[in-house]
Amino acid sequence: MTGATLTVDLDALADNYRLLRAEAGVEIAPAVKADGYGLGAGAVAGRLWAEGVRSFFVARLAEGEALRVALGDRVASIQVLDGMTPGAGPRLEAARLTPVLSSLDQAEAWIAFAGERLPAVLHIDTGMNRLGVSFDEAERLAGEGRLRLDLVMSHLACADQPGHALNGQQLERFIAARALFPDVRASFANSAGVFLGSDYAFDVARPGISLYGGGPLATPDARLRAVATVEAPILQVRRVQPGESVGYGAVFVAETPLDVAILAAGYADGYPRNASPAAFAAFDGVPRRLLGRVSMDLIAVDVTETDARPGDKVELLGPNALVDDVAAAAGTTAYEILTRLPLRAQRTYRGAV
Questions:
Q1: For the residues 167-176, what does the mean pLDDT come to?
Q2: Domain 10-212 is classified in which CATH homologous superfamily?
Q3: Which among 33, 37, 200, 271 is annotated as catalytic?
Q4: What's the CA gap between 281 and 326, in Å, rounded?
Q5: Is domain 228-332 in CATH 2.40.37.10, yes or no?
Q6: Residue 248: active-site member
Q7: The pTM is what?
Q8: Could you give the CA distance from residue 250 to residue 264 in angstroms, rounded to a whole number?
């Protein structure tokens, strides 16, 4: 008997990729940062490469280096969102990584290191006020013409709120900024942006969460398949009588006789401590409520009127316990749920890599 297991369904990942590609109608350059959203960047990128993907985005330089090793002799471009950090030039060049330049200082440092010898991506801020050069700075760089650019990009702040006024404002600003670089391809849409319509597609879309099964509007989307499934074995099934409590703090008290399964998983496995009592697990495909607090290594689940036994598996996340629902129960996002999963769970893969 083992602890929690994380099964990554690469066939489901491929199906989600095909859906996003069809919806966007343009090239897809997936975000595989944070080790492929916790699911293994090498395996994820390898399967997506087999599906036709030739460009990937990571956040950190070390992520890009690791992904280059994982891809081996498969030809793909890897963009590093952190850009040209101090002293990074030789490592970027050695691993054939493309920096995403987000400030004039980064642009100057890259020009000093590579000139027009190596390509870069220019990130233009259109209203998120996180990373990116301003319009005026982009105009200056365009006028100087010293950068060899493969792509200009920006990032949507409110794409998961289709009616938000900032979406249209950012689109107008990006259209104006993109016009400064008429011969360079452009990228704007993230997962939610893919579903905002063709005006947001440009040349390359950069989805992340929806590739991995999270809905573009932070709610379950029936068009997308669950990619990550977390299961935990039952250690013990115990009878709890009315008036008795379950777990730390006695926050749950039984009103009727219950059969309670104690699972070999907890927040040390990445399952959010505050998901209970709103979250559900699944046994034999049927939702089952969590009882009491999630502890470090154990979770209690109501399995009354089932034949649950020690060793049986309970699904904590997957097609019957959707990541967006678990995230909502914990007051967080699917992004955080997925990227926390590899803490202790044994990871396996389904589908060809």
A1: 98
A2: Alanine racemase (3.20.20.10)
A3: 33
A4: 9
A5: yes
A6: yes
A7: 0.95
A8: 20
